[in-house]
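Feature request, filed as a ticket because there's no other form

It would be nice if the structure record came with a short human-readable summary line next to the tokens. Right now we just get the raw output. Example of a typical job, pasted below so the devs can see what we mean:
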Amino acid sequence: MRTEAGGARAPRGRRARIWLAAGTVLVAGTGTVVALRATSDTGTAAGGPQVVHTSVDSLDLTGSAGERTLAARSTKAFRMLAVSWQDPGVRLDGTVRVRTRSSATGTWSDWQALGAGDAQPDPAERDRAGVRGGTAPLWAGPSDGVQVKADGKALPKGLTVDLVDPGKGGATTPAMDSAAYAMPGDGEETPTDQPTDPETASTPEQTPSDTPTETTPAPTDSPTETPAEETPTPTVEPSQSTDAGTTAPASPTAPTSTAPPTSASPTAPGYLPSLSAAYPSCASASAVPQTMPSPLPAQPPATKVPAPPFVTRAGWGADECARDTGYPDYGRTVKAVFVHHTDTTNAYSCADSPSIVRSLYALHLHQGWRDLGYNFLVDKCGTIFEGRFGGASMPVTGAQTYGFNTDSMGIAAIGTYTDLSGGDSKASTIVGATPSQAMVTAISRIAAWKLGMSGVSPTGTSSLTEGAKDSYGFTFGKAYTLNAVSGHRNGFATDCPGNQLYAKLDTVRSYAAGPPAGVGVTSVDSALGAVRSGTGYVTGTTATVRWSTSTPTSLLSGAEVLVDGTSVAKVAGTATSASVKLTSGRHTVQVRAAHVSGKTATSAAVTVTADTTRPTYPTAPTAQLGKGTVNTAAVPVTVTWKAADDNGLRSQAATSPTAKTLTATSTSWAATAKSATATKFGLTATDLAGNTATASVTRTATLLQESSAKATGTWSKRASSSYLGGYSASSGTKNASLTWTFKGRSVAWIASRASTSGAVKIYVDGTLQTTVDLKSATTAYRQAMWTKTWSSAAQHTLKIVVVGTSGRPTVTTDGIAVLN
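Raw output as currently delivered:
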């Protein structure tokens, strides 16, 4: 196995082989080890940051020209792999399959076919000595064994499987604010920044510090077969500031120099990474002249579109001593954004994302590239990672879309997003996924920012000139019109970024360009919540307006509520509600949302009535005796009324003598009254705006027993605790009668019922009212069987006459109840 360690690399050509860390040794064999480092603060080391080692172990594939293999074998720990070969200009005409052994369970995975590696540097970088071609990478998770089979008509020379151990470390919390993209020059003081939520946190205008943010738990994501690694917060040296807070970590064996450049040294303009960042002092680094880019790139123009928060290179653990020393190549401006996928598995934890980014960095360096190829990377949780060094706001020439790397930038979605339908290669057997909303939103935020600086509409087109002579389907030197947001497949013969992500590019363009889409008022709430009246809303004079947009709120700069066309409340773009004051009466309410580009969209108007008028009782409450079981503590009473409101009632309730919830449309209530006691029957009506009105009626119920009635015919007295007062009157004699004289406004006749009970005729003031049959399958006592009510109290008589029903002539009466 050949072992190679990465030191500070010369600006051009194969990197110098310079030792970085104590304990890195050259091991005889046929593979290569490239050591990369990132710093992490474990909270236990008193002597400063600790080094996190990243290595690439390369194992040769052997066999014939048409078949190369690596037998199943144990290996050092690794998490990512790829297969590479000597000539990057040679395409792999064949199939490469791998399987790996889990270090956690000892089980072997299924065979997995690797697709072609799509991202490539332009010829100037690709055609340097020592640059290798390679397959797409595979994130395997913690592994310690591998087996490889490659077959094809003519396989490339020098096939190796490259196993990456990314170490442990790196942050998943963005550490950037929106002003963190114009870097201070050497010696300039940099204020401290604050951790920023990638979706909702505001980003104050300040320059970031080199002080790293604390690591926070990664967002919830899909489960993975292997446990996510710990992600300690990266520790950096404040003297080595680069763009977006990037720093070069200090080596424990060779501390980084913090001395400012001498007076003879050039000084980087404030919008570029500092010279000390471009040329980090590394252990055993060969002397490299510190030069500025030539020609010097222009300062990025101002843009109203804020930069999204992202994890810096220092945050994810980039070893700045491993890349090519110096500044990268720059274009003039970013005219187009190419969206890629990394073609790795989707079964990763977002806590592993820093390790995945470091692994890709290691593979790209191992293949002889100057640096990580992509300008930005985004995981499925929507976390953005800074890619190639050179300044996040600058038009850094990446290694992502062969022939079109100049004046473009590449955003890589971590994972695979094919569906293996038309347009997708079937070379890889990695199952594609649907891009998450968080990922699509993050890609849109980057595109809005970068294209915003260039003045290019994300829904527009740009012209790029093909810079490679051997890019299939494209002609060298010819200008091509491409969508400002394109898929990799639009500029290179590839299926990248997979059909499922490619299908989301229209959404990315819309999100990035604005104006806000789908702006709509979802509700207007009073203190009682959202209340509709027809097609509008009813509130009091204070209301909460709620809305939604289909454009993610992180792409909105603000929103305002319009009442009758006038702005009355302004809130941040992440807000989805605002409180407003309204005058009494009818209003129109709208919401106007502003995109980060400055474009606005206004919702359809909704009608809101601010109601300050109380409900009314067009029909005042009245009370009458009701049917049911009677006792001295509870005489059945029915209360009736009519409540109304111009905009509608929300609810009604009874408040006395007992509390009861009623419906908004209720007009009656079955209550009870205590005998011989004045009882107040209270009501409350609440309208849609929360205004209330009350009403009541007071009545007294009295029980009159048989002894107060004038009797004719034969009646017997029956005693039982089941009767009112302990006794009742019973008769089976036809035409026997009882007559009560009373003064009141409502009366109820009370009797007992059984299967053998007979019937009576009821007369009021001498007029026959009805015949009541007391027969019942079940025995019941003290039942109010019949009632009559008048509009006012007056003197009346109530007479019952026994019908003498054949076979069951007997009736038992328990008196009457009178309501006054």
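Something like this underneath would help us a lot:
DSSP finds seven helices and 43 strands in the chain.
The chain has a mean pLDDT of 84.
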